Amino acid sequence: MRSKKNDDNGSDETGRSGITELQVEEFNANGALLLRQLLPAKWVERIRAGVASSMARPSQYAQHLYQGVEKGAYYHDYFNWRTIPEIADLFHWEPIVEVAGRLMGCKSW
What we know:
By secondary structure, the protein is mainly alpha-helical. The chain has 4 helices and 2 strands. The two termini are about 20 Å apart.
C-alpha cells in the first residue's frame, strides 16, 4: 500500500493517500478494504496503548463480548475514543483523514 516515497508519517511526498481507484471500487463493493502497512509502527503501538487504556477504564457504553475467551473475543466502547489521546489523535492525522475521505468519496477533507 505505501509507496517508496513514504516518510515516517505514512504519506508520500505529495501528501496523497496512495489509494487507487480500484481500491475505492473494492471498498464500495465490499464495505471494507485491507490496507497493509498503512500505519507506521509507532501509530500501531499508540493505538495498542489507547485500547489498553480504554479497557482499563471503560465508559458506561463499553461491552465485552465473549469475555474470558482468548481468541475471538470482542470489546468496544462507544464514544470513548474521544477521551483517549492515543486514539483521538489518529482521527486527526492527515494521512488517515485522506484515506477515509478518498474511500468515502468526499470532495474535501
